[in-house]
Design brief:
By secondary structure, this protein is of the alpha+beta class. The chain contains five helices and ten strands, in the order βββββααβββαβααβ.
């Protein structure tokens, strides 16, 4: 069985979290290098590689209407099991929240399974509505948040890199809680959010879970350990 993406957005400013009601089939996570090319007479083009550009993340799918989940079952059965039934969803509230995050320029922790965990900001949120159709299609684009001045003052004495900036901190914000989805267990949640699967016992204790092998799908897990 194909592995489902575990997608979560955590607002570092407000403490709010958001999971997409239906996962995109694909998520674009491009990273590219800043380049500059020159043409030299009698030689041709040469290219100079600079520092990397900000990372980007692009999500595109749909927000179903609040009363259309049953109609989507034949097409999105696996998505609904892992991403909808365990999480209360309101189309309007979700759109309003994303619009507010965009307007406020909030810093958002973007988590995509074990592949991606970056602090970012929304640069484009584009919901598209159609006449006689309650489904809202959307495009959601993030760009990496980078603050050289903040890194400078928080990392004094740790050594400057060859590009003149200091080494970035590896510390990452952890949400207050998350909802367990299909195929989740305490070990996988502990590894994804705390960095070590060995912390699952602390999570079990703090959440009053006596049997670490019992199913936790749909349960809200307090991530403070």
């Amino acid at each position: 069985m194909a592995k489902r993406l575990q997608i979560q957005f955590y607002n570092q400013s407000s403490g709010e979290s958001l999971s997409l009601p239906i996962n995109p089939a694909n998520v674009s996570l491009p990273t590219d290098i800043n380049t500059q090319s020159y043409n030299i007479i009698d030689y041709g083009e040469i290219v100079r590689l600079g520092g990397r550009n900000c990372k980007r993340a692009l999500f595109s799918n749909l927000f179903p209407s609040d009363n259309s989940f049953l109609n989507l079952l034949p097409t999105f059965f696996s998505n609904i099991l892992s991403d909808i039934f365990s999480i209360a969803f309101s189309q309007k509230d979700t759109i309003d929240k994303l619009n507010r995050w965009t307007t406020n320029k909030d810093k958002i922790r973007v988590i995509v399974s074990d592949y991606y965990n970056e602090l970012m900001q929304i640069v484009r949120f584009e919901p598209t509505i159609a006449e006689n159709n309650e489904t809202v299609h959307y495009t959601l684009e993030f760009i990496e948040y980078r603050d050289p001045e903040q890194e400078l003052f928080s990392n004094i004495g740790k050594g400057i890199l060859s590009n003149g900036l200091l080494q970035r901190t590896v510390l990452r914000a952890i949400p207050n809680s998350t909802y367990a989805r299909a195929a989740d267990d305490l070990y996988s949640i502990s590894k994804r959010f705390t960095g070590s699967g060995g912390n699952w016992r602390s999570l079990a204790k703090n959440n009053g879970i006596l049997d670490g092998t019992a199913s936790i799908v749909g349960k809200e897990i307090n991530l403070k350990w």
